[in-house]
Amino acid sequence: MEALVAYIRSGRPDLTNRQMALMIIVYRTPGPHTVRGLAATLKVSKPVITRALNTLSALGYLRRQRDENDRRSVIIAHTRNGARFLERFEKLLQPAKPKARKPATAKKA
C-alpha cells in the first residue's frame, strides 16, 4: 500500500494495468517485441496494444522502430525515459528499511 501511495504522490503519469504490463514485458523479457506478439502474450486485440503503445510512446517510455530485417514489421523498443521510469517504480516497491527501535525500558511496578 505504501508503494502505491508513494507512486501517486510522485507526480509520475498514472499508467493503466495494460500499459504497465506492456512496460514490464518489453523491458523484462527477451525481444524483439511486435504488436502482434504483445497482443498474443496478453490475449487482447492488436488495437488494444496500439492504444496503449500510443500513450507510452507519447510519454517517451517506448518507441516504435522498423525491423531492419523486415521493413514491413515494427519492433517495440526501449527508451532511456522508460528504463528510468521502471527503475524508479521498482525502488518504490522495495520494502522500506525498518526504523530503529528505541530500547525498551523496564516498567516499574
UniProtKB/TrEMBL annotation:
Record Pfam families: MarR_2
Ranges where the HTH marR-type domain occurs: 1-109
Protein name in the entry: MarR family transcriptional regulator
Organism: Parasphingopyxis marina
Molecular-function annotations in GO: DNA-binding transcription factor activity
Domain of life: Bacteria
Xref: InterPro entries: HTH_MarR-typ (IPR000835), MarR/SlyA-like (IPR039422), WH-like_DNA-bd_sf (IPR036388), WH_DNA-bd_sf (IPR036390)
A GO BP annotation: response to stress
